[in-house]
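Standup notes
- DV: blocked on the single-chain target, sequence here:
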Amino acid sequence: MSTMSFSIEENIKRDFTAWAKHAKKSKSDLFRDMIAIYQFNQQLDKNTDKYDALLGKLGIQSENELYEYLERDENYKDRIRHQRLSGHK
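- DV (later): unblocked, structure below
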């Protein structure tokens, strides 16, 4: 492992130290956890953009419409045929 050094405001330093103490973790462990959360959120944003585009192509605009789509008793070919008939491509 390597060491990083950077400057932060005194109140952030106090908060960070308190968070680590409250979590019963070292500041290094807390920082690693924060990085993991940041990376997860970045991946989630990418996936959200990708799936929003796909849902738009399927004509799904709400969570209820998504659940209805998923719960239908249709196979893939039936769904594609209905999408073509309804004008969604």
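- Follow-up: The CA atoms of residues 8 and 76 lie 54 Å apart.
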